[in-house]
Amino acid sequence: MSSPVTDTSQELVGEYQHGYHFPDESVFKTRKGLDEQIVNAISERKGEPDWMRQFRLRSLAAFRKKSMPNWGADLSDLDFDDLYYYAKPTDQKGRTWEDVPENIKKTFERIGIPEAERKFLAGVGAQYDSEVVYHSIKEDLAKKGVIFTDPETAVREHPDLVKQYFGTVIPYLDNKFAALNSAVWSGGSFVYVPKGVKVEVPLQAYFRINARSFGQFERTLIIADEGSFVHYIEGCTAPVYATESLHSAVVEIIALPGSRVRYTTIQNWSNDVYNLVTKRAMAYKDAVVEWVDGNIGSKRTMKYPSIWLMGEGAHGEVLSIAFAGKGQEQDTGGKAVHAANHTSSVITAKSISRGGGIASYRGLLKVNPGLHDVRSRVVCDALILDEHSASNTFPYMEIDSDDVSIEHEARVSRISEEQLFYLMSRGMTEAEASLMIVSGFLDPLVKQLPMEYAVELNRLIELEMEGTVG
Amino acid sequence: MPSAAAVSAEPLWMRTLRTRAREQFQSLKWPTTAEEEWRRTDLSRVPLDSFAPVKPAAPSCPADVERGAASGLLRFQSARCLESALDPRLYEAGVRLLPLDNALEEFEAPLHSLYQKALAEIDNRFLAWHYAEWSHGALLWVPAGLEITEPFLIDFQEDGDGIMSAPHLAVFLGVGARASVVQRISSRGGAAGGAGLLCNAVVDVRLGDASALQLWEQQELAPGDIYIRHAQAEVGRDASLRHFDAEFGSRLAKSRVDCALGGTGAEAFLDGAYYCRKGQHMDLRTVQRHRSPKAMSRAVYKGAVDGGGRTVYQGLIEVSPGAAGTDAWLTNRNLVLGEAARADSIPTLKIGNNDVKCSHGSTTGKLNAEELFYLQSRGLSAAAAREMLVIGYFEDMLTAAPEAFRESTLDTIRGRLRVA
């Protein structure tokens, strides 16, 4: 079915570093394309209750009706009929690391998940193709009542929680890609943190696409009950294929009163993946939601993590980093919707474009009518590293109240010659100096990442920067 | 349709251009909220097809009226030129300030090329409608090297109900010329409950190398009218445009100022002040189009919104790949003065090149409570303190304006604050 990477595909995707994969051993796979039959097959395969099957079918109808966005990244090459919508990798779920199939383990090792992470991180939901194959929850977390599982299990074992929250933050009618995900979702994470519980170590899931032309549609739902805290980390890296792959996830977060949720993503799909993701959080009274969103890979990304500030005292933050290299279009940003008094939000975006890449910031700041004491600040910084690359900024601000303080700034520039000259006069090569300036530019955001991610991100930026000078 | 007499009096080239524009009008549809530029201005409930184009009046223009301190003056009422005046020394030097229909023969070449280019770039039905049906207008021609201090005054009073009037202003500055123009568009308003007037105005500006134009526009249409305005400027090498747009009137205003910096070292200042009252909808757009290296542009739009008013500002800085050394920024500030006021701010950047310095900023907020308190503690009434702060907010944009323009703009704002 698949063959080792050839020289041709290497050329097609440039210098992508994680371009290896193992033979595809998917056990069950639907045919290409999407219709009721496929959706029913997915639902049946998962042994879902009828309400979820009906939800999928309603979503499919919505997907057909919704039009493609007439803005954002260029999606004209995307062919919905030329994709597989479901594949189930292995029959059994691994309980411990030893139980995970050898070839999947090897793939993870090649990506470089540090040994330390496997040992110390609380729960690892490692996703191979579209289903969770490996899952463990540290005992003390389980004792505290934290649920960290895949959404299929949640549908089976916690149907009440799922029914109460699933699709409430991002309804299936929200947009075309959310509708698509709602119809064919598979895998992802389900997290429930009970009242007052603070999860001190980040929860992580690694995602991986490994079948040719195979779309991946994770569905993540995080519910932080009153006064709880959780940090969820999602990292992606995918092997190389010449045909386009589609990744269209939906992530819903419910931060109940007084809770805090931080969601960190480092997205590094290979340069042939369409990454069209809907992420949204509801922050209730005195809750805090933070999105840290790094986008390095993919061919086209459209992703705008959103926070709806629903209760008094709620606070939202979005930190967005985008790196657009050759052939890439990163259309990213953040949204904050203020729906209650005494709410505040901060959106900080930094982007770098080089080698003909296009980095666009797109964001929304909305203040609903009749609100008081609303504060928001949106700052975008962009660096363009060569004359072939482009950077766009589209911040939308819709202010419907008078007692507000809204600030927005954006700057686009290149690496200043004075800075380069100064560093080179201190003995650095131009490449070293450029890298140092770029690292410094991103530093405020990289600092927000857990250490191992900061290391990974810095390494990736270094790789991306290779050959930018001269 | 224009009256047969007026159109047949036009030279063939203009009739041909009108026909072409009419074809474009037929093939285009009215803008809908599906288009980004019109997303926040919904015209679906405006019966656009019911507005009949106003008939161009037979040219009759008593010349040599008192022009005051101005270099020249043109005054229109309902598509008819009422007054025209020009400093005789400027006339001697080759300056022309003419009703557009009187200028078609003498200025065939520049007008023809300007209109041809405009038709090629039409991107919405209102523009096509304007070029097909323009009813009256003014042409200002300043030959190379002439520097004129006193402003030219152009006054369009657009009265009517259920009609579409299409005033046009065309300004040509020769190499190294300098001039200043004040344009005022107003209306008295029709009967209550009428359809109002649809004023579909266009301003075309062509600036030769090293020339400098100041263009001060003020819009005070009656509260029942609709205002659609496209200003299009091309700024040549080392030339400079200072455009100021004061928007007060109409129930629905959709205005666009699109400035192309087409020559190396060109500069443009696109500034605007708007005051939006209850029931008004204002959607203003500026485009700073950097097509040449080392050009500089600035846009500063400041608005005040009363309760129940709705404003949209959409700014764009677009930098072409070849426009190295671009220096551009834009700023939008909104002052919300009442409950249920809505101010949308969309300052965007599209940058296709790395040798740039581009930025934008936007703030939205209400009057500073501490400043209000301080002024009141010095004995000012709450209303006087509020007026002082709002006037101060707008006043610093008008320091370079001709005095009469500055005063009338600030007077309009004062009048609104006193009523509110």
Description of the structure:
The complex is a heterodimer of chains A (470) and B (420). Chain A is of the alpha/beta class and 470 residues long. Chain A folds into 2 domains: 7-303, no CATH class; 415-470, no CATH class. Chain A is built from 12 helices and 23 strands. Chain A has helices at 7-13, 36-45, 50-65, 102-111, 115-120, 139-144, 151-157, 159-165, 176-184, 417-425, 430-446, 451-465; strands spanning 28-29, 87-88, 124-128, 131-134, 147-149, 190-193, 203-207, 219-224, 229-237, 245-247, 250-255, 260-268, 273-283, 288-295, 300-303, 306-309, 315-324, 329-338, 343-353, 358-367, 374-384, 390-399, 404-413. In chain B, 50% of the residues are buried. Chain B has helices spanning 4-9, 12-27, 88-92, 100-103, 108-120, 125-133, 369-377, 382-395, 403-419, and strands at residues 52-53, 72-77, 80-86, 96-99, 136-142, 152-157, 163-165, 167-173, 178-186, 198-207, 212-220, 226-235, 240-247, 252-261, 267-276, 281-290, 296-305, 310-319, 326-336, 342-351, 356-365. In chain B, 22% of the residues lie in helices and 40% in strands. Chain B is an alpha/beta fold and 420 residues long. In chain B, a hairpin with a 2-residue loop joins strand 2 (72-77) and strand 3. Residues 1-5 of chain B have low confidence and may be disordered. The A-B interface holds A 70-71, 369-370, 382, 384-414 and B 34, 36, 307, 321, 324, 334, 336-366.
